[in-house]
Design goal:
Blueprint (H helix, E strand, L loop, with lengths): L3 H8 L3 H12 L4 H7 L1 H4 L4 H30 L5 H9 L3 H8 L9 H7 L3 H9 L5 H5 L12 H17 L2 H14 L1 E6 L15 E5 L5 H12 L3 E6 L2 H12 L5 H50 L9 E5 L6 E6 L5 E7 L8 H15 L3 E5 L4 H9 L8 E5 L4 H5 L2 H6 L5 H14 L1 H5 L18 H19 L1 E2 L5 H5 L5 H15 L16 H7 L3 E2 L17 H10 L4 H6 L1 H5 L13 H12 L29 E10 L2 E5 L6 E4 L20 E10 L4 E5 L4
Helix pairs in contact: 1-2, 2-5, 8-11, 9-11, 11-15, 12-14, 12-15, 13-15, 14-15, 15-22
């Protein structure tokens, strides 16, 4: 089914752009590929919009599949009227569909179904009509001990059960009550008696009430986690009086004895059936929204972390700090290969500073170490101070590196394959050193959930989280580009169109043939077909290729355009890349074709100007205040420079060099109200903060970005 018109209207896009995007996605094109190399077809839509089109198309597809199932089910029951079919076909949401289907949905035995089996349906209908008369007299003929109706009260109860179930399945009732829950629903949380001490971290939610419509995602997820762990009870509902009043307005038609029976049925219908059902819906709906927000924040954090500025190809010393077990030291060459490793003990309980100084100095001299990466975990600040006092012949850059996840990598199967003869401490130090050289290439080896960013990532829908993170990593890899002859199998696997199996084939071919000499040679790799080549080639670089375009992000399908540009000036493509005056003479309009227009031609010109340019920022050296090493060194009013290490919906966490990150609450991120911290700060950003609170016992530091 074609959803292009509907999606175009919802997202305020042209129908052609949406239709072309959906067609490309259906053909297996990746989102980065479509965004970069199919701009004419999509009207230059970016990855965010293309993702929104894809997700909405999937939602509508699922809605249509459910619609077809419901129509078929009701049709098989022989109950599909023309009016019902029309209403099912016109339903725009899953909730509307399910409400229409509910009376026809096969269900287990209920109190109402038992009452119907006992022949009480006519009594229920007469009572619901609410005419004048005595319901008890109406009920008397229905008393039948053999059917299980022992007395008048049992007959009336059965009739009320039937009425209650009909109310709970009434389409208008459910729609209006759902709106009430959405607009006026509140979420309550209370501590479970006797668990106050154990659940102290949820103290904020021990007796909490707030509108469901406005609860921030992180607070909802915290409440639900507290409930899951058995410390809290969580409930969602509007005012019971308001809900019952709404149901009365729909179902009560008069003021007589029958109407009183209906009111009793309403109370039962709400408390036993509708309230639990609506609460379940609202909780699911709120959880989905909270998950989406948490996943978005986490994915944004991961993107920023992966795209952190790389130091580049340098000889690097990596140090994994420690006290009792010492500091593990490794030296890596410019390609990240391990040259040598050892251990030093500059801290208590050994405190052999003299030997440690000599070892670091000698290794730096022996290999020409250009930079030293020091993990920021236990003993990190102490190790940094020690290294800064080593008497180097040539002072290297000294950089503190976030080591979150290094231990996960060091214990992984991948690390064992890379370094089968080394222990996990050596592997961890290697990971720290490589992170400085190229964060993207190293961090993709680690499950993104283990790299210390995001909020409540273990509480959200794990399937959706994994899909989002996988797309984020692929987008980052494609944005930077991959050198075909040096990239790891793990890095290659994230390139559009490649995947794990083809990545392994590429590495195997590379090993057997001594590397690739052109992008075109990829087609010689087993199982690497034309479709994979189309998707991947633009994101691949071959630095030593004879064709200079192979070093750029120009797609091979556009090479002839660049070559015709050069030919029009009677020069080579290399000349065009090297000489701006030649490029300035190119008239893009002369090279427009039915397939490639000005957007693609502009991208080609940009690539010719800076072939294979890295979109990441330049590396920026940073050092913490040397006088502040521990939380006890802090005092209120102190101003420090720190690094943003995590961003959440409620603020950001900043490393100020005391082994405990401080929180800048969203209310302290500017003089004006900040709705989204991601609009104010980014991961790894260096910012100036003021200490506004220190709780040494609870290891909590409150910071502010409002300095004046």
């Amino acid at each position: 089914m074609d959803f292009s018109i509907r999606i175009a209207k919802e997202l305020n896009l042209t129908v052609d752009a949406v239709r072309n995007t959906i067609e490309l996605l259906d053909e297996g094109a990746s989102i980065p590929f479509i965004a970069r190399y199919r701009k004419e077809a999509t009207g230059s839509l970016n990855e965010v919009v293309i993702t929104a089109i894809r997700d909405r198309c999937r939602q509508l597809g699922e809605l249509e599949a459910r619609r077809e199932y419901i129509l078929q089910s009701v049709r098989e029951q022989g109950k599909l009227t023309a009016d019902l079919e029309k209403r099912i076909n016109e339903a725009e949401t899953l909730y509307q569909l399910e409400d229409l289907y509910l009376p026809y949905k096969p269900k287990r035995k209920t109190r109402a179904s038992v009452a119907r089996e006992r022949g009480l349906e006519p009594l229920a209908e007469r009572i619901y009509a609410q005419g004048n008369g005595n319901p008890r007299q109406w009920a008397a003929p229905f008393v039948d001990a053999e059917k299980g109706v022992d007395d008048v009260e049992a007959a009336l109860q059965g009739a009320r059960d039937i009425i209650a179930e009909k109310m709970s399945e009434h389409e208008q009732t459910r729609a209006r009550l759902r709106r009430l829950f959405e607009r006026r629903g509140r979420i309550f949380s209370k501590v479970i008696r006797g668990r106050e001490l154990e659940g102290q971290k949820y103290e904020l939610y021990f007796n909490n009430k707030e509108p469901l419509l406005r609860i921030p995602s992180h607070r909802l997820l915290a409440m639900l986690r507290g409930e899951e762990e058995g410390f809290l009870r969580v409930k969602v509902e509007p005012s019971e009086e308001e809900a019952l009043g709404l149901l009365d307005s729909i179902h009560v038609k008069g003021c007589n004895e029958a109407a009183q029976e209906v009111e009793d049925a309403i109370t039962d219908a709400y408390k036993r059936l509708l309230q639990p059902q609506m609460e379940t819906e609202m909780r699911q709906q709120a959880k989905v929204k909270a998950d989406e927000e948490a996943i978005r924040v986490f994915a944004d954090n991961v993107r920023q972390l992966l795209l952190a500025p790389p130091l580049g190809e340098k000889v690097v010393m990596g140090i994994d700090p420690g006290f009792r077990t010492g500091c593990k030291v490794v030296v890596l060459d410019r390609q990240g290969s391990l040259l040598e490793h050892t251990a030093i003990f500059p801290h208590p309980p050994v405190t052999d500073v003299h030997t440690a100084n000599r070892v670091i100095r000698d290794l730096a001299k022996k290999y020409g170490v250009e930079a030293i990466a020091i993990g920021n975990g236990t003993a990190g600040r102490e190790t940094e101070q020690f290294v800064r006092h080593v008497d180097f012949e040539t002072m290297p850059l000294i950089v503190t590196v976030n080591e979150n996840g290094a231990s996960v990598y060091s214990a992984s199967e991948l690390a064992r394959q890379e370094f089968p003869d080394e222990d996990i401490t050596v592997r961890g130090a290697v990971s720290i050193g490589r992170r400085l050289m190229d964060p993207l290439a190293e961090l993709i080896k680690i499950d993104p959930k283990s790299i210390g960013v995001g909020q409540y990532q273990h509480d959200v829908n794990q399937k959706k989280l994994a899909a989002s993170l996988d797309e984020t990593v692929s987008s980052c890899v494609d944005a930077v580009g991959v050198e075909l002859n040096t990239a790891s199998r793990e890095l290659l696997a994230y390139v559009s169109g490649i995947g794990s199996a083809l990545a392994a084939n590429i590495v195997r071919y590379r090993t057997e043939h001594g590397g690739f000499h052109s992008k075109q040679e990829l087609l010689k790799v087993p199982r690497f077909g034309e479709k994979a080549f189309e998707q991947a080639a633009g994101f691949i670089r071959v630095r030593d290729s004879a064709n200079p375009l192979d070093r750029s992000a120009v797609h091979p399908e556009s090479y002839d355009i660049a070559e015709r540009m050069a030919a029009s000036l009677q020069c080579t493509v290399g000349d065009l890349m090297a000489d701006k005056t030649l490029r300035d003479r190119i008239r893009l309009e002369d090279f427009v074709s039915p397939k490639f227009g000005i957007p693609t031609l502009t991208d080609i010109m940009n690539e010719l100007a800076k072939p294979g340019r890295d979109p990441r920022e330049q590396f920026d050296l940073f050092a913490f205040d040397s006088n502040v090493r521990d939380i006890t060194d802090l005092h209120v009013g102190m101003e420090l420079t720190g690094v943003v290490v995590n961003i959440a919906a409620f603020g950001c966490f900043v490393d100020i060099g005391v082994h405990q990150d401080g929180l800048v609450h969203v209310s302290q991120m500017g003089r004006r109200r900040v709705r989204n911290p991601l609009d104010v700060v980014k991961l790894n950003q260096k910012i100036k903060v003021k200490v506004i609170g220190v709780d040494v016992n609870r290891k909590r530091i409150s910071l502010s970005m409002n300095l004046d």
